[in-house]
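Input.
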Amino acid sequence: MSLEAALRAAVGASQVLVDPELRAPYETDFTGRFTGTARCVVRPAGTAEVAEVLRACAAEGAPVVIQGGNTGLVGGGVPAGGEVLLSLARLAELEPVDQAAGAVTAGAGVRLAGLQAHARTAGLDFGVDLAARSAATVGGLVATNAGGIHVLRHGSMRSQVTGVEAVLADGTVLTRLAGLAKDNTGYDLSQLLTGSEGTLAVLTRVRLRLVPLAAQLAVALVGVAGTKEALDLLAVARQRLPSLQAAEICYADGLALVREHNRLPAPFRELHPAYAVLECAGTSPAASAAGSASAGTDPMDELLEALADAPAVLDATVAADSAGRARLWAYRESLTEAVNAAGVPVKLDVCVPPGALPGVVAALPETVAGVEPAARTIVWGHLNEANLHINVLGAQQRAEQVTEAVLRLVAANEGSISSEHGVGRAKARWLPLSRSPAEIAAMRRIKQALDPAGLLNPGVLLPA
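Output.
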């Protein structure tokens, strides 16, 4: 029996796509930078079918690329050439919210927006949020340890995962979904697989921690003189705003691009070099009734008082209603869409020590211009974590050289070459900038133990 026949037997003939036109949407990432040709696309509907697919591929020695919502930025979910592409989009089951545990079990193909809506219907919320919420899937978020805008308050995906179900390369199924608050019975495989980028196993279901649903939200868009002043504002906000849950930064060139693409008005009469977005979340009625320390706090009042006393503020506008909050967030959340509309960017996601952030931001234009003088660099990021999203337009012909120059700048400032989007194929060769030879050797030994034939996401994360 051929591999394709075995795959059809496992998932059904209609769920094995071999026609080039049917495969095409899966073979290029959403930025358009990474593309390849899959042997076929397989769409299983559950853990048992995933296990059958991997057994069939293991029997033939066929490499497998795992894909979730295909919103990644480092080429980790698209084929390099000839692999079986395993799409987890149909693993979309959401179990009822466990109110007693404050948790829920979700299939790997559940989209973030669907997970959020499901939790909110039960009076809870999910602690991770990001602009790609309508497309990004739970499995991909866990596999890349995604962060997003609420890491300041709730942490990254690693902090939300309490259990996983996963399938090893040989088809063995690992299930640990009880989500116990305390469980010291050996290695934590859930945490090992979080951030492993599909190189150790295929995540099929995940147990996730939920957080209280905020009854009130307030958002401020603040004009500041630069990166240092934004950090000064953040220091005041963290001290004065116990309700703070997001702190973002973008710059004048990025805001101009968003305004042009989305036809948005200028937020202020005067232009400013940099802009911070702050979001505060008020307590829920249940928390107030229970007499919590912050019961009855209005996040809008807190935010206005903090901004009034912050020397870094040049101008500010605040909103508490949903339409107003969406309007202010649009200046930050539309940046990816606006950049992608302007061309195919070289996208880099890095993190540096907060004290190094102003110097790194200032050095980026010169660093990129040293490789590609005509390139246009648009930067934004998560201010609290000093996590920058660097987008370079007009540099596709020298993408590798631009990437190396920027990542070496980051490494020279004791930063990480990947903050929340993974290493993927795009940055695997530069992993030694952030990890020691001993660490990389240990990772290889783990990979060898769980995937001895190297079939899962070959070329991703670990340098060749």
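Confidence is low (pLDDT under 50) at residues 286-295.
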